[in-house]
Amino acid sequence: MNTSYDVKFWEIRRNQSSKTPSYVVRWKVGGRQKSKTLRTKALAESFLSDLRQAAKQGEAFDLDTGLPVSMIKVKNATTWYGFALAYVDMKWPHAAAKTRDSLTDALATVTPALVSENAPYKPDPHVLREALRQYALPPASRRLDPPSAIRSALTWLERHSLPVTDLAKVRNVRLGLDAITLRLDGEAAAATTISRKRSVFYNALQYAVDLEELTSNPIDKVKAWRPPKVREVVDRRIVVNPRQARELLTAVTYVGRLDRGRHLRAFFASLYFAGLRPAEALDLRIQNCYLPDEGWGRLLLAKSKPQANRRWTNSGKAHDDRGLKHRADDEGRPVPIPPELVTILREHIEEFGFHEDGRLFRTSRGGIISIGTYCAAWRAARTFAMTPEQTASPMAARPYDLRHAAVSLWLNAGVAPPDVAERAGHGVDVLLKVYAKCIDGGAEIANQRIEDALTT
């Protein structure tokens, strides 16, 4: 294979020679121009993104096909099992830890279903899942020496996995779709789980289309299968008002040992008064805080620390260093903060100081606070601050619901949606879609307008 690291990309352009809309991805490898036409702009952007990521990772590109070596490996896979492994290898270097988790979770669900119809001696489903999830799919885990049962399960998959080209048949792709609707115990999977796994499965098949192993995505041909509806809007029952939020923040100071609750008060306050995501608050540093003696302050968010299984992170630690959601890797987000949060953060710094790297929130040994730790403190605070009926309700059931309450408050206060979206790190369209049911007064205004019209 003749390869080159000399790669140049151009912007996507509309295909003017076709009556139906299509889009052309153009790039150059070692001076040779390459192009690929895709049906939609979204597909073209996804394909171009994969090419750019491969170049960013320092991959060599094949001069003949114009594809990075990792794509060639996927293209050369003959069975679905081989395709899944190569697909993970291609995605892994530039995927976030939680994306890797979702990727392997979904592929570990569909791959055992995509086997020959009469394959004998099928291993136990739990063994197959462990074999894929813990040994075969994560690239680094393939170097491990698995138990004999795991080796036998993987050998069985290699032998009986369907050819990739057989996934063009609707009856075969339905096997994968049906698999994601069930848990290992045979019970129905949650709607969000089904939607997430279907998305991974769809994208993997679309990649096979991009590499011309399939002529079209076979999931598009499945007419009798419909994923369950997933709630895409925030349930207004979870949203607390300012008085309730302050009571919860006070209650947090009474939970835990060794001042843990008092230490977490400012963490939770950052979620409510600034609308931060928990992962963003965990990486909040003194050098990114402007906290004046009086008036409004400002936070300049730079990074986040999402938590995932150590198996999925590059560092081998539970928390990854990531850029901000919906932002370029080096793009920050300024967030104005009200005087009340300025005071809380100043009090926190005076009492607890900060880590040598500037982080405001950390464990007693300077580590990253785990999800389990702050969620346990939050559950305890709810029992102190709420009535038994409220505790049993979904009201502020998760720390993340403080962020939902913050964004809902801003919208109801009349802050312009673009300004709210900028503070929260959302797109305006997503913001209005997600928080549509949390905006007060809309029904009353509509009722009054209808009444006025009826009386004229």
From TrEMBL:
GO terms for biological process: DNA integration; DNA recombination. InterPro entries: DNA_brk_join_enz, Integrase-like_cat_sf, Integrase_catalytic, Tyrosine_recombinase_XerCD. Residues 310-332 are annotated as: Disordered. Keywords: DNA recombination. One of its GO terms (molecular function) is DNA binding. Residues 235-450 form the Tyr recombinase domain. Residues 317-332 have a biased composition (Basic and acidic residues). This is Integrase.
